[in-house]
Amino acid sequence: MDSVIEIRRLKKEYLAGENRIEAVRDISCCFEIGESVAITGVSGCGKTTLINMIGLVIQPTQGQVIINGVDSTNLTHKQRANYRNKIFGYVVQDFALVEDYTAFHNIEIPLLYSVEKMRKSERKRRILAGLEQVGLLEFATTKVRNLSGGQRQRVAIARAIINDPQIILADEPTGSLDSQNTEEVLHLLHSLVAQGKTLLLVTHDQELAQQCQRQIKMADGKLVG
Fold first, then answer.
1. 95: Cβ–Cβ under 8 A, 6 or more apart, which residues?
2. Three-state SS at 214
C-alpha cells in the first residue's frame, strides 16, 4: 500500500488563561490508501483535534501533515481550502446540515465551492447519483429537518463524498443513532473503503473500532497503541 497521509511529530497547544494545554503531543503515523482506521480513546484525549489537523481544519502548533507527498505546511489558505473540498470528506456526529435546505441542496454545497466548475445539469446528475448511492433518492426534495437521524446522516455522507474525496474523516458518525441506523451507516462507510477510499473513524466504541482494519489508540494527546 501507499501512504496517502503521513503525519510527523504533530502537536497542538491551546492557551486557557495562563495555562497551556497540550491537546495533541508529538504524534507520528501514516495512513494508507484504501484502509479503514479507527482512532479510539476516551473523550478529551485529542482524537477530534488530531483529525481536524489531518483534515486541515486547524493548524498544528508544530509538525507536518503530508498529503499525497505534499507538505500542507507550505499550502496557502486558498490551497488548504481546495484540499478540504477535494481531498477530504467530513462526517460528524451532529450531521452539520442546513436544516431548512432539502437533501438535494445540502449535498450540492461542496460542488458550489469546488475548483472544478460544472454545469447545473452535471451538478444535478452527480447529486441524484449521490442520493441513490445512499438510498435516499426519493427524499431529494425533502427538507432535512423532516428526515430521521439515520437519513440525515446518510445525507451528510452523500455530501461528504460528492466531490469524490480520497479520505473520509468520520468523527463519531453514529454517536446519535440507534443500533439499526448505526449498522446501516457503518455499512455505507465501509463500502466506500471497498471502493478504494481511506476511512479515519473516530470512536470510543470498541465494537465499531473492531470493524476497521486497524486501530490506533490515544490517551492524553498521545498515541498509546
1. 144, 149, 152, 153, 155, 156
2. strand
Closest by Cα among 199, 213, 195 to 169 = 199
Q: pLDDT tens across 59-91, in order?
A: 999 999 999 999 999 899 999 998 998 999 999
Q: How far apart are CA 63 and CA 82, in angstroms?
A: 21
Calpha distance 43→27 (Å, rounded)? 18
Q: Which residues contact 212 (CB under 8 A, 6 or more apart)?
A: 36, 37, 38, 199, 201
Contact 198, 167 (CB under 8 A): yes
What's the rounded Cα separation, in Å, for the pair 141 and 220?
Answer: 44
What are 27's strand-pairing partners?
Answer: 10
In this predicted model, what pLDDT tens digit does every residue of 169-214 receive, in sequence order? 999 999 888 899 999 999 999 999 999 999 999 998 898 999 999 9
Q: What are phi and psi of 203, to 5 degrees?
A: -155, 150
- Global confidence as pTM: 0.92
Strands 70-71 and 62-67: antiparallel
